[in-house]
């Protein structure tokens, strides 16, 4: 029912549903200073949901208060799992502050005591006002809409008396079925039992260092995970009155001599950049929408999704594990240049959210690449140093997956050496319509890509690194057909993506291609008024309702031919 990990011995309740709601307006005080006792809740809102996606508050920026009445035994130890919110939140239990949430889209867990009584109030104040100091990770210049709401599911767990598990990590260093299990047992040490793939847990010889433990096991019949055979395993751990079930896959991902190796064999990644967004619900997606999107991506012949530009929902990644998609997960960032990157709070939160993402998603076999800071100021030392810090932080937790970063400065970046995979975003023949006498400058695509590959091959330190073309695309207004096949028509986009896919197919040096983008998505037109008709980014191969444009069949034809 819930995203992994699961806790079979705990009372776990989904708090998704209708919550009481009050809009406190654009002039509400700072989140921290809002007196909560006087709030009058006069309507209902869905959770997950965004108040500014609802017609009544469309386009508004202010504070929304969400309230839910929950029963929980007096003085019980509780754990709240919040799948993600934005732009920032203040969380209260019976009018006591539990936490501030400054990491949009990130899953966060909070432990606290229920206090006296049986009936309690959970209150989440959401602020969607942009502010350079208060919301340093989400800026209004980002090319996707910053919604206000509880983006993802909320769950409340009653923790058992005595010891309880925190997140458990599963490492499968090779393909032999050897499994290294490590984690934290709060209140431990305590005797541990473990069972794989549903078998009855048996005592294991866990090595404890304080509350953290580790042990190794050997699976008798290891089934490997791959896009063609996405086999999954589970481990159930028990200690005291608690149990946790984690799901994992056995697969390796590595870079060697300019190739990406999955289970030791070269693989080419073909797919899309995908925003977790819907025109009616913003980022508050649900199982039906996720399954539809993945069905469409499968139909297009994709094996790869770049989860742009923020941590993915755990529920969505569970689905990717099950369906065999390869995912690039990245933390939140978009075009933050050196000025933004110099801010100490921004740097601290970038590290925090990136570490949180890696720790949260560590057991998903679908996640094969870590990224951060899309299109940042990597041409300046202040930006490059942050990228290096982030890469080091990721590697200090996880050495089993390559690290990458999508640069828009492939010719000027001074940080490319910091990554295992070189990834670049490029829009020749779209933004670079320098030659205006040519209304269809498609020949600029191969020319520009040739220049990039020549640069990479000309530099010793880059020559052996795999390369992903992490964004490329052209806008098309759904339904705009044009015999001239000019800019903004579905025809131009189809011809554009045809040129890109042909180039990809004939250039093995490109190990991956993530087309920009899966579906149209809401953004702002302000800074780019002519480039964003309808205030949407219109480069989707599908429109925002997932209606296919002409390019759909073109891409499908090419990606399907790569499948065998
Ligand atoms: C950038 C950015 C994307 C999108 C794209 C575009 O490369 O990373 O989020 O804004 O450009 O459509 O221009």
Can you count the helices?
A: 9
CATH class of the largest domain: Alpha Beta
CATH superfamily of the largest domain: Glycosidases
Bound molecules: alpha-D-galactopyranuronic acid
List low-pLDDT spans. Answer: none
**For the report, how would you describe the main beta sheet?**
8 strands, parallel
Which strands sit side by side, in order, in the main sheet?
28-27-26-25-32-31-30-29
CATH architecture descriptor of the largest domain: Alpha-Beta Barrel
Q: Per the principal axes of the C-alpha atoms, what is the gross shape?
A: globular
**What portion of residues belong to β-strands?**
25-35%
Write the layout of secondary structure elements.
Layout: E1 11-14, E2 17-25, E3 43-47, E4 49-50, E5 63-71, E6 77-82, E7 85-86, E8 88-93, E9 96-101, E10 108-113, E11 119-127, E12 149-150, E13 154-159, E14 164-171, E15 178-186, E16 192-196, E17 202-204, E18 207-209, E19 212-218, E20 233-239, E21 242-248, E22 253-256, E23 259-262, E24 265-266, E25 269-274, H1 287-299, E26 304-307, H2 314-323, E27 326-330, H3 338-341, H4 344-361, E28 367-371, H5 381-397, E29 404-407, E30 421-425, H6 444-457, H7 460-463, E31 467-471, H8 490-506, E32 510-515, E33 521-522, E34 536-537, H9 551-563
Bound molecules: alpha-D-galactopyranuronic acid.
Alpha-D-galactopyranuronic acid (ADA) is lined by residues 143, 334, 374-375, 408, 425, 471, 516, 537, 539.
């Amino acid at each position: 029912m819930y995203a992994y990990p699961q806790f079979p011995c705990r009372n776990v309740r989904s708090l998704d549903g209708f919550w009481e709601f009050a809009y406190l307006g654009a002039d509400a005080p700072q989140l921290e200073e809002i007196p909560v006792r006087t709030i009058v809740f006069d309507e209902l809102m869905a959770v997950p949901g965004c108040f500014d996606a609802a017609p009544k508050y469309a386009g508004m920026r202010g504070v929304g208060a969400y309230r839910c009445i929950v029963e929980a035994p007096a003085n019980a130890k509780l754990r709240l799992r919040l799948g993600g919110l934005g732009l920032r939140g203040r969380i209260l239990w019976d009018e006591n502050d539990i936490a501030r949430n400054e990491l949009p889209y990130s899953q966060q867990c909070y432990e606290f005591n229920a206090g006296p009584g049986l009936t309690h109030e959970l209150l989440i104040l959401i602020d969607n006002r942009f502010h350079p100091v208060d919301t340093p990770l989400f800026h209004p210049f980002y090319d996707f809409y910053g919604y206000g709401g509880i983006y993802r599911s909320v769950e409340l767990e009653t923790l058992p008396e005595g010891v309880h598990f925190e997140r458990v990590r599963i490492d499968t260093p090779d393909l032999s079925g050897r499994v290294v299990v490590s984690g934290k047992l709060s209140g431990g040490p305590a005797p541990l039992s473990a069972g794989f793939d549903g078998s009855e847990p048996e005592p294991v010889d866990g090595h404890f260092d304080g509350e953290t433990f580790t042990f190794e096991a050997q699976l008798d019949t290891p089934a490997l995970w791959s896009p063609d055979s996405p086999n999954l395993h589970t481990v159930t751990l028990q200690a005291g009155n608690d149990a946790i079930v984690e799901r994992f896959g056995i697969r390796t991902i590595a870079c060697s001599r300019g190739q990406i190796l999955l289970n030791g064999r070269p693989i080419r990644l073909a797919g899309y950049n995908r925003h977790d967004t819907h025109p009616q619900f913003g980022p508050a997606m649900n199982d039906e929408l996720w399954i539809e999107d993945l069905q469409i991506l499968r139909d297009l012949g994709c094996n790869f999704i770049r989860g742009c530009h923020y941590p993915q929902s755990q529920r969505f990644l569970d689905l990717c594990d099950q369906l065999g998609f390869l995912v690039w997960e990245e933390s939140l960032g978009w075009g933050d240049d050196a000025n933004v990157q110099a801010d100490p709070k921004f740097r601290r939160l970038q590290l925090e959210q990136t570490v949180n993402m890696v720790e949260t998603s560590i057991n998903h076999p679908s996640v094969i690449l870590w990224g951060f800071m899309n299109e940042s100021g990597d041409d300046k030392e202040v930006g490059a140093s942050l990228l290096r810090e982030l890469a080091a932080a990721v590697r200090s937790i996880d050495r089993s997956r390559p690290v990458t970063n999508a640069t828009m400065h492939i010719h000027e970046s001074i940080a490319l050496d910091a990554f295992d995979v070189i990834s670049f975003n490029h829009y020749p023949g779209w933004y670079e319509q320098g030659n205006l006498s040519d209304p269809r400058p498609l020949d600029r695509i191969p020319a520009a890509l040739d220049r990039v590959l020549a640069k990479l091959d000309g530099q010793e330190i880059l020559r052996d690194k795999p390369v992903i073309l992490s964004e490329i695309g052209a806008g098309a207004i759904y339904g705009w057909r044009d015999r001239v096949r000019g800019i903004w028509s579905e025809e131009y986009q189809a011809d554009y993506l045809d040129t890109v896919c042909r180039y990809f197919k004939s250039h093995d040096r490109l190990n991956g291609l993530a087309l920009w983008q899966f579906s149209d998505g809401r953004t702002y037109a302000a800074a780019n008024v002519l480039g964003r008709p309808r205030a949407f980014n219109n480069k989707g191969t599908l429109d925002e309702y997932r209606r296919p444009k002409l390019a759909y069949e073109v891409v499908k034809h090419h990606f399907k031919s790569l499948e065998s």
